[in-house]
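Exercise 3.2. Students should predict the tertiary structure of the chain below and write it as structure tokens, then compare their answer with the key that follows.

Predict this chain's 3D structure.
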Amino acid sequence: MTAHEVNFDGLVGLTHHYAGLSFGNEASTRHRFQVSNPRLAVKQGLLKMKALADAGFLQAVIPPHERPFIPALRQLGFTGSDEQMLAKVARQAPRWLSSVSSASPMWVANAATVCPSADALDGKVHLTVANLNNKFHRALEAPVTEALLRAIFRDENQISVHSALPQVALVGADGAAHPTGLGGECGWA
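Answer key:
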């Protein structure tokens, strides 16, 4: 069997800001309310991706998700035009505005849990979208992440994309950021 490793990086979105939304994440808490520079962050990310590609690594780019995520605000009961709703949320619930504006989908290590084909009974790669249900701003990502993964990995004979598990603590999933696979032989191309 021949395996290929592809590095996926997410582009930083225009609404990137340091809101300290990830309780328990020391870097998030430490940088809370600092001024961010989304344009510089995008340039830095693209330079890193180019450096990896120039070094011979297979490199893919994941686009930012739509932010602010208006459907979540409507689901929470806010009404009016997008502009009216955003102004209302900014006044009444600034933390929610921060959450629906988070650029956190750039952290694609949290996008899905991967089961390599070498470990799967059917010999296919399996991607299960992470529900990220531990943080409101991250839990918003699952539907768009699933759509992106289905668009990228269309060959259902080799790769299966699975929807996120239900949004409950019992089956919380952080994607591929934490699992480690240990095994025997694997052929790298």
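Discussion points: The helical segments are 26-30, 38-54, 70-75, 82-92, 94-100, 136-139, 142-152. The CA atoms of residues 67 and 142 lie 14 Å apart.
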